[in-house]
Backbone:
């Protein structure tokens, strides 16, 4: 029979085969702190560098699986996560008791893209808006806050996870744009079932524990409907404005009205409405069909007193590029929807410029 030390050494070897976020093994990343056991029970203490619950849950299952596969006599495997102390920002060395400086982002504008319901192309429009702003020469990042159905990684063709370094996520870059998504942290088939406090923590981590770098725009893809994510976002930092995506038919507009009400409730200005799938041009005949009606979003925007940013056609190439992970191809020369998407971004830029002009200049008082 193997001794306790031999079993412990074998288990460490097994844990060395489990990959942590960032590519290192749990052992090489210094996550495994200690092990203690007796009889048919084993407890493994792990250092938690701030990973969200889905990552820790996945690692819990992997640890239990590899240990019990090699040592079936261990009936209960528990993982005890110990929080890693968060270093105090901008504090002098040794001043552990000083209050941390509030987190901040080097981002000029945060743009929240939402919808009253799913299925209207919200994530497609968020990704396309980010690309359009980038094409206009701006530094852009994409934050996929649709934690229940993160589709941005697929649309952008990202299959590499976010790395962790210096207690911060290092987001993958796509065409120069940093991207962060819950899709990097949980398996595609795993449901995220979270309540308010967990969602609030996820939004905070995505904002302040991601190395975004300096940005002109951070485009945030919100979950469909109204709920905790919008509240958390509005509470944690100033949001320049929201964009609502809807389709022309009245049923969709009913839900879009709720999205506008939500923005107003949390004091996020609405920068405009995008009417997606506005019309269809038959590629063979060139005839136009208003499959979902026409002009409903523009009429509603006028009635609600909010800007109308433009119409995006029901275009097969937009769907194909999203499915293939090539949203960038919507902006190649000659792409059928390129002009429509760029015009929406231009209208958004105009709205922001008008708001900045209306707000007047910022006066800085320097004490002599």
Residues:
């Amino acid at each position: 029979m193997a001794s306790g030390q031999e079993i412990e050494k074998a288990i460490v070897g097994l844990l060395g085969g489990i990959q942590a976020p960032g590519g290192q093994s749990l052992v090489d990343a210094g996550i495994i702190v200690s092990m203690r056991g007796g009889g048919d029970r084993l407890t493994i203490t792990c250092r938690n560098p701030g990973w969200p619950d889905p990552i820790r849950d996945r690692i819990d299952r992997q640890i239990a699986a590899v240990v019990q596969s090699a040592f079936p006599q261990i009936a209960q495997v528990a993982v005890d996560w110990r929080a890693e102390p968060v270093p105090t920002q901008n504090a002098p060395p040794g001043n552990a008791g000083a209050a941390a400086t509030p987190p901040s982002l080097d981002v000029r504008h945060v743009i929240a893209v939402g919808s009253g319901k799913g299925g209207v192309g919200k994530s497609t429009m968020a990704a396309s808006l980010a690309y359009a702003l980038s094409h206009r020469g701006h530094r852009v990042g994409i934050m996929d806050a649709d934690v229940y159905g993160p589709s941005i990684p697929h649309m952008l063709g990202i299959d590499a996870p976010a790395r962790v370094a210096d207690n911060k996520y290092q987001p993958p870059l796509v065409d120069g744009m940093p991207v962060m998504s819950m899709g990097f942290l949980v398996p595609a088939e795993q449901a995220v079932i979270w309540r308010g406090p967990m969602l609030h923590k996820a939004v905070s981590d995505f904002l302040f524990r991601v190395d975004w770098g300096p940005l002109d725009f951070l485009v945030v893809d919100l979950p469909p409907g109204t709920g905790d994510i919008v509240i958390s976002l509005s509470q944690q930092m100033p949001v320049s404005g929201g964009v609502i995506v809807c389709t022309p038919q009245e049923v969709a507009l009913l839900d879009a009205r709720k999205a506008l009400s939500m923005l107003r409730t949390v004091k996020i200005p609405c920068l405009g409405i995008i009417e997606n799938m506005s019309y269809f041009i038959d590629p063979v005949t060139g005839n136009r069909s208003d499959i979902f009606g026409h002009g409903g979003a523009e009429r509603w925007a006028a009635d609600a007193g909010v800007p109308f940013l433009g119409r995006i056609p029901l275009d097969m190439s937009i769907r194909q590029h999203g499915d293939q992970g090539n949203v960038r191809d919507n902006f190649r020369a000659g792409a059928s929807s390129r002009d429509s998407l760029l015009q929406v971004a231009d209208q958004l830029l105009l709205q922001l410029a008008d708001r900045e002009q209306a707000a007047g200049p910022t006066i800085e008082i320097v004490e002599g």
Summary: Residues 338-359 form the longest helix (22 residues). The domain at 107-357 is CATH 3.40.50.300 (Rossmann fold). The longest strand covers residues 41-48. The two ends are 78 Å apart (CA to CA).
